Amino acid sequence: MRLESLSLQDFRNYERVSLELNPGLNIFVGDNAQGKTNLLEAVYVLALSKSYRAARDTDLIRQGADRAVAVARVRRLAAVELGFVLSHTDKKRLLVNQKATTANRFVGNLNAVLFSPDSLQLVKGAPSDRRRFLDVQICQIDPVYRKTLLEYQRVVRQRNSLLKAAQESRAHLNQLPAWDRQLVNLGSQVMQRRRTVVASLQNITRGIHGEISQDREELQLIYQPFFAENGYSQSEGDRQEEEELKAIFRQELQRLRREEIRRGCTLVGPQRDDLLFVVNGMDLKKYGSQGQQRSAVLACILAELELMYGETGEYPVVLLDDVMSELDQNRRLQLLTLLNDKAQTIVTTTSLASFPAELVQRAAVYRIERGRIA
Ligand SMILES: Nc1ncnc2c1ncn2[C@@H]1O[C@H](COP(=O)(O)OP(=O)(O)OP(=O)(O)O)[C@@H](O)[C@H]1O
Ligand SMILES: [Mg+2]
After folding, report:
1. What value does the mean pLDDT take over residues 85-92?
2. CA of residue 262 to ligand 2 center, whole Å
């Protein structure tokens, strides 16, 4: 899949910009605060319908402007035109071939994988980062999952307000069983999908990580459901798994009911899942060196590309925000070589010096200065 062209109007620090992209490697060079990340962010919003770093959509509108507009031409088997319009006064509009559509129909037309210095924190960061890592990829390849996840999150929010209300008056508790049923049904669907995706990632990662660590180490990705530490064991696979999952879910609800009411929040469910990175039997979060953690993240992100390829038949567009300077020579080369010729790649950097000369020769190189691209 390729992003052929992109135009932005009043998006972040861009007043108006229009560009064509190279099907292979694209390098955007610029000093700090010139608009490099903003550009990748625009592509990300075209893929996921919302930003990964803005609290509100309207933060994306250029200060002083009324609305931000983006239009992109994406080439898959056929060409698709995607766009969004963000405004201070109207609701966000998402467009596919110039027709307004829902977020669920919008997401999935352009698939993207973002790798930034923050991604390097994936292993040692918060569990929520790792859940987001999984969710962002699954949502792009599976609209049903996206819908289920959003619905689940809504149920958690409403159940939380009910629990809070129950702290004041027990009367609210008779509504709880209805919410519990939804929590269990939607929650176990979310968990099953996450589990299968982690299993696929694990399969793919093995080979890639072998290459990165020159076969000295074996990386395991382990899905950790919220009840993992409470000594439940589970069979793998089939229908039975789903029933077991629900049974454990219900048991945990029972067990933690008082605590949930006391704290006024839902303590059970996939909003508490985690993903474990284990190398040679060691939890990398606790024991990994920085180099090991980085290799694991790199392998995992490259595996994500293969997973998306496997599911959709096309590689996603790869967005690399300023990561070259963060990686050593060896990993840098490995990353670019592994990506080479597979996926369209859009890279930002403050200096071309961190790129191998032969790569720069083949790439389209753009300069970014104060929201202008040349
Ligand atoms: N809504 C907005 N309106 C106008 N300008 C904005 C808006 N949001 C962000 N900016 C500006 O965009 C500029 C560039 O931001 P960006 O994050 O893209 O920089 P960058 O080139 O990635 O820099 P760095 O190398 O430091 O990461 C910042 O100076 C910021 O103030
Ligand atoms: Mg930046």
Report:
1. 98
2. 42
What CATH superfamily classification does 117-313 receive? RecF/RecN/SMC, N-terminal domain (1.20.1050.90)
- Contacts (Cβ under 8 Å, ≥6 apart) of 284: 123, 124, 277, 278, 292, 293, 296
- Dump pLDDT digits (tens) for 227-245: 987 767 655 555 668 899 9
SS3 177: helix
pLDDT of residue 239: 66
CA torsion, ordered 223, 193, 111, 364, to nearest 10 deg: 20
pTM exceeding the 0.85 threshold for the entire prediction: yes
Q: Is 350 in the pocket of ligand 1 (CB under 6 A)?
A: yes
H/E run at residue 179 = helix 176-212
Q: Is the CB of 8 under 6 A from ligand 1?
A: no
Range in 92-106, 167-181, 233-247, 250-264 with the lowest mean pLDDT = 233-247
Residue 95 contacts residue 85 (beta carbons within 8 Å): yes
The answer to whether 143 and 102 have CB atoms below 8 angstroms apart is no
Q: Hey, where are the domains in the chain?
A: 1-111+316-374, 117-313
Nearest to 107 by CA among 135, 86, 131, 67: 135
Please give the biggest Cα pair distance in the chain.
71
Cα of 129 from ligand 1 centre, angstroms: 23
In the three-class reduction of DSSP (H, G, I as helix; E, B as strand; rest coil), residue 157 is classed as helix
Domain with residues 1-111+316-374, CATH architecture:
3-Layer(aba) Sandwich (3.40)
User: In this structure, what token pair is assigned to residue 230?
Assistant: 């409470």
Identify whether the C-beta of residue 317 lies closer than 8 Å to the C-beta of residue 139.
no
